[in-house]
Design a protein that fits this description.
Helices cover 69% and strands 0% of the residues. By secondary structure, the chain is mostly helical. α1 packs antiparallel against α3 (53-74), α3 packs across α4 (78-101) and α4 runs antiparallel to α5.
Length: 159
């Protein structure tokens, strides 16, 4: 069975993309896992979560990120991992945009928990938008390689 050269390129492009995206989430989770106390403060600075939930989300979120990242890098549960990745990116972007609109002068907490790290700006939104565009670009690639079962054409046999 010969595989089309185009299919080979799609497969390799998807592999590179999922490793890059997964690597971003894994990298982003490391400092949060190592320094949960600082990440609690980073989350609290956004003033979105009810008081007391910062601890829960500071402990949960980095492990969700690393799990999604590992699944993408290893090519496991690709549809679910990519969809969760995109949902989280949209949530992160909404929180950053809301904070910018509210005029908060805070560190992102995205890749470091250092409170003296660079503050969020509209460039932070541009960076996340670029990552989101890349991750959304994974859907057409993945759909060519592994169509969702409910989207597959059903074959009809007569007789």
């Amino acid at each position: 069975m010969d595989i089309e050269p185009r299919q080979i390129w799609i497969r390799w492009l998807w592999i590179v993309l999922r490793i890059v995206l997964g690597g971003i989430f894994i990298y982003a989770s490391i400092d949060k896992i190592i320094n949960p106390e600082q990440f609690i403060h980073a989350l609290a600075n956004y003033r979105i979560l009810p008081r007391g939930l910062e601890n829960f989300f500071a402990l949960l979120l980095p492990w969700v990120e690393v799990t999604i990242g590992v699944f993408l890098v290893l090519g496991m549960y690709e549809w679910i991992a990519l969809t969760l990745y995109n949902i989280l990116m949209l949530v992160f972007m909404a929180v950053i945009a809301l904070s910018l609109i509210r005029g908060l002068n805070i560190s992102c907490g995205c890749f470091t928990t250092d409170p003296n790290a660079a503050k969020i700006t509209w460039l932070t939104m541009m960076r996340d938008s670029l990552i989101l565009v890349l991750s959304l670009g994974g859907y057409p690639l993945l759909s060519r390689l592994k169509p969702l079962p409910f989207l597959k054409k059903k074959s009809t046999t007569i007789g």
